[in-house]
Structure formats: structure tokens, C-alpha cells
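tl;dr need the bound structure. longer version: we got a ligand (flavin-adenine dinucleotide) that a collaborator sent over and nobodys looked at where it sits. i said id run it. heres the input, straight from their email, havent touched it
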Amino acid sequence: MKFSDLTFVDGGQMDRRSFLKINAAVMGATALGLSGCSKLSASSARGRIVIVGGGAAGISMASRLLRKLDQPDITLIDPSDRQYYQPGFTFVAAGIWKGEEIWRPQSKCIPEGVKWVKDSVVALDPVKQTVRTYTKGSFGYDFLVLTPGLQLDWDGVDGISQATLGEGNAHCIYDFEGAQKTWIAVQQFVRQGGRGVFADTYTKHKCGGAPKKICLLTEHLSRKEGTRERLQFDYFTAEGALYDVPYYTPRLEEIYDERHVSITTKRRVKGIDTQAHKVYMENRVKTKEMVFDEKLQKEVEVEKEIGVPVVEDYDFLHFVPPMSAPDFVKRSGLAWTEGKLASGGWVMVDKETLIHKTFPNVISLGDVAGIPTSKTSSAIRLQVPVAVDNLVSLMEGHAPERKYDGYACCPIVTDYGHVLLCEFDYDKKEKISFPFSMQDMSKEQASAWWLKMYFLKPMYFNAMLTGLM
Ligand SMILES: Cc1cc2nc3c(=O)[nH]c(=O)nc-3n(C[C@H](O)[C@H](O)[C@H](O)COP(=O)(O)OP(=O)(O)OC[C@H]3O[C@@H](n4cnc5c(N)ncnc54)[C@H](O)[C@@H]3O)c2cc1C
């Protein structure tokens, strides 16, 4: 059994070892920042830029474009009053931060010099180059930056909705209120004991690490509270394996094993009976069937996957709803129409230049982009400089040259004190930032915990959103 050796957990003082760890983390933060930073020089390119969505991607784009263009004409459309640091939802659900510590007023995050239209986009027409908002009319653009994030499809899980989250002890940390309710329920569960069922979802979703983190943190909390023997932890993934980046998977599976958290693969959550505390799942199994092949003019055997219903009882449940591109994006004619990314309606951009494949005046990044990498803000931090430089090249009439390699970082918090900092690229190959390359990052590290705990949030609000890194 491994407990955190860091003073944060039980006290508040910092010892020498912790201080050194912080320093390592600072260096890490700096290195992570420098790797994403390009030298900005003013361009005289002209054009009306409309940015749809002012989250991690949209505001970072606006800030960098302001510095890059000498006469910027930028309109940002976003309805939200608040800018959330969403990676903090997990820490709120684990009692490390309070809800009010992870958001800032949107008005303070949108950079001066950008015209903010506080409204939702309901339709966009890439042929006429217009976006239509709910109440404030239509806006024409020369260049469109499409960054509205993704939508949580709550209706994809029967028996619960965003409004009823928490009923029947069924929780989800992908929602701000939901994360706060989760912390109350986690403490109760750890005290009372019972079976904890933790599940992810079968669609592409943001931060694939989040359901794992809340599972492992709850398990660690029960050990800290001395109630572990009264609890059972079962993790269900819709995937064929717990994690799919070979450098990190063995240790992650080992952690689950050491801590007696079972892993069941190929399970999809379909519905919840919150009264009876039952979660309805589908076990995806391969089967064979005969179909008529028009070309061969005969019956042939094909393999297909079917869902076999299974029910699991729970005392505490953490589930994740399916996710997809916002509906107006799906209807826009900008989404993939074939391949793996078509079903979610993700935007059809080139995975390296982030420019739309049929409308070269449209650039898309962040969660909504149809690219085969992890949907995280760490990925966005490295997408933004590429997207800005390529957009400015297009505005100047040059071919876009910068390429994004799929870098994403998924910090899997394994306990109150350690993080398995999974950094990788499109090829699922580890891509470890200095100075973490001096440590064995295939294992969880305290230095990565300090990075996450103390540096990533201020870095988000003060450096990433302001276009400094
Ligand atoms: C629980 C959880 C844990 C996470 N953990 C991590 C982590 O540890 N590390 C990490 O790097 N990432 C993590 N992430 C993922 C990260 O937060 C997202 O990938 C990132 O915020 C996506 O940025 P975005 O700009 O694409 O979308 P968002 O930041 O979601 O912003 C989208 C913006 O678009 C606006 N919008 C939506 N619809 C419209 C519309 N119709 N018209 C106009 N505007 C619209 C919204 O108001 C919002 O401001 C986590 C996320 C969650 C939920």
C-alpha cells in the first residue's frame, strides 16, 4: 500500500523534499510552456475573423491572434458568463479544491480588443460565410475559427439527466454541479461502505483519464480513512483495454491490480435505475452472421459486434454520458461524413494543419476537432500556435506550413500525491517533456502531482488564455 509522502495531504507545511519537487515541477511547467511557444511577429494580413466558442481553445486563439496581427478584426461568440478550468472538476469531486476556485468571470478572460458577442451560435453556413446566433442576428466572416467544444449527450443514458445528477447516488464529474455533488457523495460512500461502480463511455470524450482518476482517488481516500475493507471498487470501460498508450498502460493496470480495483472491458452504460441502484449496461461481444454479398452473389460470413444486456448493482456510481460535436456543427456541412469520426459529427480538419479539408478559410481545434488525439486542454495548448500561424499564413495568401503532431498530455491522478503523467503523440508514442524525461514517467510521480496541483491552473488562466504559452 502506497500513501502520499507529501505534506499537502495531512498538513500544510512544505519540507525540503517537497520544495525540490516543486522546483522540478516549475521547470516542467516552463518546459511544457516553451515547447508550445512560437515567436510572435506582427503581420499586416487583413480579414474578418469570427471565433465560435470562447473556452480553452477559442480564447487562447483570440489572444495569440491579437498579438500576431497588426490590425486584428476579431469577433468572439460565446454565451457563457464563466470560464471554467475543467481539469479542476476532478479535484473538486475529490475535495481538493472548492467549486469557486476553478472558474473566473468570462469578461475577465476575453482579451481587450476582441468584440464579444454574448450569444450562442445556432447555425453556420460555410458557403455564404455566415454564422447565425440565437438572438443577436447573423455575422459574416472571412475566416472562421470553430472552437465550441463538445456537447454532453445526457439523453444517451436512460433514467438520469443533467438536472437529476446525484439522484440514487449516480454521479458525473463532467458537470460543474455534478462534480460538487460527487464530493459530498464520495465522503458518504467512503464512510458507509458498499460497492462503487465506475464507468466511462463509448464515444470519444474529453479527458479519458477523468473517470479513472475519480475511481483511484476515492479508493485512496478510503485507505486514508481506514475503511477500505468495507468497500468494493469495480471499473467498467467501453474500450477493449483500460488504456491504449503502451508506455503507460502496464503500470496503470498494475495500480488497479495492486489496489484490488477490478477492470471489465467492452461495457457500455445504457441506463440507470436510480431508485433500485442498478446500472444497465451492454456487454459488447463479437459474433458472426451470414450476409448476402452483392459482388460475389453469395452468402458470406461476417464478424460483427452486438450488445448483450447486463445489470450491475451499485451503492455509489460514477458514469460518463456519451459526447459529440454540438448539434449546429453536425448540421453545418463541416463534419466528417465517413470514417470513425463521422458518427460524432466532429469537424473534418487536416490532423496536422488543423485547416478544414474542403473550406480552407475554416480552422478548428480543441474538443470539437475531428482529429485522432485525446480531447484535453494540454493538447489544445500545442494546437493553438500551429492554428494561429497557419491561419495567418492563409490570410497572407501563403500555404500553411506548421504541423501539429497530436501531442496530448493526460495526467492520471493515481492518489492524493501522485500522477501518472501520460504524454504522447498521434502514434501513441510517449512524448515526455523535459525535465520529466529525467524520471521514469512510465510510473506515477510526485513531481507530476505538484505540477498538477500548483502550476497547471494558474498557467491556464494567466499564460495559456492570455496567449503567452
Ligand atoms: C472532468 C474533466 C477533467 C479534465 N481533465 C483534464 C486534464 O487533466 N488535463 C487536460 O488537459 N484536460 C482535461 N480536461 C479536458 C479539457 O478541459 C477540455 O479538453 C478543454 O476544456 C476543451 O477546450 P475547448 O475550447 O475545445 O472547449 P471548452 O473549453 O469546453 O469551451 C467551449 C466554449 O464554447 C462555448 N460554446 C458552446 N456552444 C456554443 C455555441 N453554440 N455558440 C457559441 N459558443 C458556444 C462554450 O460556452 C465554451 O465557452 C478535462 C475535462 C473535464 C470535463
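gonna send this back to them w/ a short note. The pocket of flavin-adenine dinucleotide is lined by residues 52-58, 77-80, 86-87, 89-90, 120-121, 147-149, 173-174, 206-207, 210, 326, 328, 366-368, 375-378, 380, 411 (CB under 6 Å).
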